[in-house]
Design a protein that fits this description.
Helices cover 65% and strands 3% of the residues. Strand 1 and strand 2 form a beta hairpin. The chain has a two-stranded antiparallel ribbon. Helix 1 packs across helix 3 and helix 3 crosses helix 4. It is mainly alpha-helical. The chain contains 6 helices and 2 strands; from the N terminus they run H-H-E-E-H-H-H-H.
Length: 132
Amino acid sequence: MIAIGEASRQSGVGIETIRYYEREGIVPKPERAPNNRRLYSADDVGRLRFLKRCRDLGFPLADAKTLLGLSEGGGADCLSVKDMAELHIANVRDKIDELTRLEAALNELTANCAKGNVACPMLTRLRTVQGC
């Protein structure tokens, strides 16, 4: 059994995030030592690593919690996992499209900038244009 600092180091999850996950019921509350300090098992650290991987892939916390539950359920429903992943992929593609439009709008605005102008065309355009 290890303390929260070591669980954080081994899992890559911050201490405050671990405490948050416990408060919100995303991971079970760990055992406590006689001095009331949290004690984490290898399984606890594995759960934290799993959640970190899900979050690193951009899954919302609710989806990461669902995936964790499915992974620990013994009879993981592969189709449900695939459906969640495909929905997440679609959301990622939507974000990429949105960021591409944002990049184009910013490129257009900055292309009109020139050194030494007293009046900045970008600021003028931001003040007058509605929507990108």
